[in-house]
């Protein structure tokens, strides 16, 4: 036995009185946890392989299974946690970089949970969203500073290309390859029916999904995977990915085990080769270089599509956003440190970046102070979990929000944080054909539509309680927010008052 033997994180508890040896758990588990012992004539489990995805529990016909956290742990130590010790053992054994997925899980402040919404009462009465009109539609893109009219008094339409959304929420970038064909199809179908958009991520666009082009944002990342003229023309908007919240300052990595079949063809790289995108775009080292790419993409698409620049939230994000607003881009997407991902170095994921709430407030404040807020729209992402988070983000200055993990949860994700191994038992983050077909795109899109429909109703209720009848009136309206349990510096950055003031 190795000196760094680590006891299994999870234990499979099987009620042998209920178990009928139907072997459904064995069939459902792609990780090979369950197996039948021919000698003992019972089902057993290799718990070292369990990631607690709950697939076996869900499909056990006799409810004979449950997965529990192992209570076998290292001696308690406030400085050396069990997780830290286990990670050192793993690295000492392998010499490799630790990989993780699905966002930073650490107990760091979630500022959305420390912000309350200020409701209306007597002097500014609330609005009943069931009986009075509420406008949840938003338009993303540059807005003119003033209205101009011709000699006949007619308004001159000098708007640059805009993205029209029925609600201020979109499905965030998740590349084909990191997630399955059926996941992309679910997102595309739902976006089309909802009147919003989904983002391809940096893996190109499968040819089957070109029909959803009016509801698609195509991404151009540092690796340029799958980028070609037809791809750029297919989308409603183009996003230049400079960084993402889960791994600021580094590039992407899709293991070669996922580069198979259509993924290989769509990304335009050989099967089995790792798709490694570099940390920087090797043609962008300044705002001037970024401006060159922005206008190259506009020129290539005849100035018909808005250009988005996506950046991770870092300490100087306000200055960066100011530069992007002057680069010719139409929209900035800022992604917080809790953003999800298929795979990221654990140390980067857990220690780099800042909360999106603070970054958003700082960016909005800076752009307003410089008089250029209407020159650009703001999208925020990075663990937007509910309609309440959406409303708070918009009040802090966002025009719209990206959701990624929330959308995957709607599709059936159990947040087992094993996306990087490619054995997603729910058919979401995998390219295994037998696993992919477990996700029904028709059902998946219906669940996404249900989620967004519910959020839309809740957003209307929130706005009604504030006496506001449009998203535009909510945007940047910090008077409707109050902090609780925050220090003065945090309140100053957020630009809100403490509860009770």
Give an overview of the whole structure:
This protein is α/β, with parallel strands linked by helices. The protein has two domains: 10-96, Alpha-Beta Plaits, CATH 3.30.70.20; 183-461, TIM Barrel (Alpha-Beta Barrel). The chain is built from 16 helices and 21 strands. The protein has helices at 24-28, 55-59, 82-94, 181-194, 229-234, 261-267, 287-300, 317-325, 346-351, 356-369, 387-395, 405-410, 433-436, 441-466, 471-474, 488-494; strands spanning 10-14, 34-37, 42-45, 65-69, 99-100, 115-117, 138-140, 163-165, 169-171, 198-199, 216-220, 237-241, 253-254, 275-276, 307-312, 331-335, 344-345, 377-381, 400-403, 481-483, 497-498. The strands form seven sheets. It has an eight-stranded parallel beta sheet with strand order 9-19-18-16-15-12-11-10. The protein has a three-stranded mixed beta sheet with strand order 6-20-21, with no helix packed on it. Helix 11 (387-395) links the parallel strand 18 (377-381) and strand 19 (400-403). Helix 8 (317-325) crosses helix 10. It is globular.
